[in-house]
Amino acid sequence: MKAVCLISGGGTNLEAILKHINKEKLNLSITSVISDNPKAHGLKIAKKFNVDTHVFNFKEYKSKNIFDDQLEVYVENINPDIVILAGYMRILSKSFCRLHSGKIINIHPSLLPKLKGLNTYQRALSNNELYHGSSVHLVVNEIDSGSVIVQFRTKIKSNDTVSSLRKRVMEGEYTIYPMVINHLANENLKIINETPYLFGKKLIDPIVINDF
Ligand code: GRF
Fold it and tell me: How many CB atoms within 10 Å of residue 139?
């Protein structure tokens, strides 16, 4: 199967995925790593793993529509089986989502449907949540709203800071994201009408991996 990966920043999830591919734990080829930000550190990671990169520098486009069109044409030409969003900070166009419906996945640092949007670590701490974590979910038109497939969950400790919590959650991400991608690549996980089926059974609740 072939995938493209969209990033905007650090690329540590991308790195975890590429490491799994290199160790042959993941039967997938990443055809292109695409970034809207030429300075994204993830581009360096892609190059280190000899994966092609392509930058659509958002700042160089006159409008989001033009940017969206160019991105769409580029990805359509690749015709990937999976579109992996790994820290991609822009909203995909409706047309892009329709074109790759059922093939786009994202990882979001919260236990969705809780804490959609940004600053989830700070919000989890301020809300005195008992747990925090990360969710791998399908991407549909509405932000952070597609079916959740797998979650990583950790207990919030009384001495946790944004940084300690982020570190723990991101370690979990490096496990759950390759896990979901592996199931997609092996076709154990299929998406039919925006609904995930794992080993032929409709996935009603996400699979939860606890670190406790
Ligand atoms: C991850 O924490 C992910 O949950 C969120 O963006 C972050 C990306 O980090 N969507 P990185 O670029 O993979 O290091």
Answer: 25
